[in-house]
Design goal:
Blueprint: E1 5-6, H1 38-52, E2 64-68, E3 71-80, E4 86-87, E5 90-91, H2 92-105, E6 109-121, H3 126-143, E7 146-155, E8 163-173, E9 189-192, H4 198-208, E10 210-211, H5 224-232, E11 237-241, H6 247-259, E12 262-266, H7 274-283, E13 297-300, H8 305-313, E14 322-328, E15 335-338, E16 344-346
Parallel strand pairs: 6-7, 12-15
Antiparallel strand pairs: 1-10, 2-3, 3-8, 4-5, 6-8, 9-13, 9-14, 11-13, 12-14, 15-16
Helix pairs in contact: 2-3, 5-8
Length: about 350
C-alpha cells in the first residue's frame, strides 16, 4: 500500500462530516437527496413529478431528446456546487462545461451551445471568480461549444461557498443514431473508457487534507470527441452514460432498470488505479460508487466491441478503455459483480452519495 497519511496542513475534522445516507423517511431535504442515488430518484418521482403534473414530459435521463422542425435535439441542464471550487486537475468552471457537454454527448448528440448562470457569494474575491470564468471559457473552447447566453446573481455572505454554476446545453443528433438506456439488451458488452473513481477521490483528498502517496487529479474532461470517434466506427452503440454522482454502480443500475435487463461485472476487469484503491480501502469506500467526471460507459453489440475498443484506445481520453462486463437476461434490473475469489455480490443502487458535493 502507498504511503497514506494525514496532511500536515490539515487534519480531518470528523465533527464536520455529514452522513450522506440518512434515514429515508426524513421530512426535510438532506444531503442524500443530492447524491444521484435512490433518494434522488424518490425525490423526483414522489415530489417533483406529481407537482409538475401534466407539464412534465419525457424520460428521466440526463438529457432529453426533442424534435424541432424535423431535427432531433438533445437538451440538458445541470447545476454545479462542488466544494472546494478549485481542486487538483480542475475547478468548478471546467467541471460545469464538461459535465453538461458530456450529458448531451451521451445521447449521441454533437454539443453545439451552452448557457452559463453564475450564483456568486458576497465577499468572494474577483480574482477567484475570474479564475473560474477563464476555466469556463477555456473548457468551452476545448469542447468546441459556444457560450451563447447566461445570467449572474449574488447571494448574501455565508450562503454560497464562493460560486455555484448552472449550465444548459443543446446538441444535434445525426440521422441513424439511436443511443438510449432502453436499448440495452442481453449479450451486450459493457465497456468503460478508463480508470474509475478518480474525481471523487481527488475531491476527497483536497477537501479533507488527505494524502495518498501521490497527487490524485480529477479526470474532468469533455467526452464529445471520444463519442464522435465511437459513432464514426459505424458500430451499433446501444447505450452511453457518464458515471458521475453515484459512480459506475448508480449508472449501471439505472440502465438495467430502464431496459429490464441484468448486468454482470468482473471485479478483476475494473480499471482502478492504485491511489484510488488505497484511498477506498482506508476509508471503507467502494470504487464502483465513487464519482467520475471524464469517463463513460458504453453498451455495445458484441460483434462491434473490438472496433469500438480500438477507436476508444486511439483517443487520448479512451486509452485505457476495457471490457468490464456484459448484459444478461437473468436478474433483470439488477447488477452483480463476480469477485476475485469466485463469488458473486449484488451491486445495488446507492441510497445517496458516499461523498456529497463532488460536482
Amino acid at each position: 500500500m502507498s504511503d497514506l497519511k494525514l496532511s500536515e496542513r490539515a487534519a480531518v475534522d470528523m465533527d464536520s462530516w455529514v452522513c450522506p445516507v440518512p434515514l429515508r423517511d426524513s421530512p426535510n431535504i438532506v444531503m442524500g437527496h443530492g447524491g444521484g442515488g435512490a433518494m434522488s430518484g424518490e425525490l423526483v418521482e414522489h415530489l417533483f413529478l406529481p407537482a409538475f403534473g401534466a407539464s412534465a414530459a419525457g424520460g428521466l435521463s440526463d438529457s432529453a431528446v426533442v424534435s424541432v422542425g424535423g431535427i432531433r435535439l438533445a437538451f440538458s441542464t445541470d447545476s454545479f456546487v462542488v466544494k472546494p471550487m478549485t481542486f487538483p486537475g480542475g475547478s468548478i468552471g471546467d467541471l460545469a462545461v464538461n459535465g453538461t457537454v458530456n450529458d448531451v454527448a451521451m445521447s449521441g448528440a454533437r454539443p453545439l451551445v451552452l448557457s452559463t448562470a453564475f450564483i456568486l457569494e458576497e465577499g468572494t474575491t474577483l480574482a477567484s471568480i475570474a479564475h473560474v470564468a477563464e476555466a469556463v471559457g477555456a473548457a468551452a473552447q476545448i469542447a468546441g461549444v459556444r457560450l451563447v447566453t447566461g445570467d449572474t446573481k449574488v447571494v448574501d455572505s455565508g450562503h454560497g461557498d464562493g460560486v455555484y454554476i448552472n449550465t444548459s446545453g443543446i446538441g444535434i443528433i445525426d440521422e441513424g443514431v439511436d443511443i438510449r438506456p432502453e436499448r440495452a439488451r442481453p449479450g451486450d458488452v459493457v465497456i468503460v473508457s478508463g480508470d474509475i473513481g478518480v474525481h471523487g477521490v481527488a475531491i476527497l483528498s483536497c477537501r479533507e487534507g488527505l494524502e495518498f502517496g501521490t497527487t490524485i487529479r480529477s479526470d474532468t474532461a469533455a467526452l464529445n470527441g471520444l463519442v464522435a470517434d465511437m459513432i464514426a466506427t459505424g458500430a451499433d452503440l446501444h447505450v452511453l452514460r457518464d458515471p458521475t454522482r453515484g459512480g459506475v454502480a448508480a449508472s449501471l443500475n439505472e440502465i438495467a432498470r430502464s431496459a429490464g435487463v441484468g448486468v454482470s461485472l468482473s471485479e478483476r476487469a475494473l480499471p482502478i488505479p492504485p491511489g484510488v484503491r488505497d484511498a477506498c480501502g482506508l476509508l471503507g469506500l467502494d470504487p464502483l460508487y465513487v464519482a467520475n467526471e471524464g469517463k463513460l460507459l458504453a453498451f455495445v453489440d458484441p460483434a462491434d466491441a473490438d472496433r469500438v475498443l480500438a477507436a476508444m484506445r486511439d483517443n487520448p481520453l479512451g486509452g485505457n478503455a476495457s471490457i468490464i462486463g456484459e448484459v444478461v437476461a437473468e436478474h433483470p434490473g439488477m447488477v452483480v459483480a463476480k469477485t476475485g475469489l469466485g463469488g458473486t455480490r449484488v451491486v445495488d443502487l446507492p441510497a445517496g452519495e458516499q461523498l456529497p458535493r463532488i460536482c
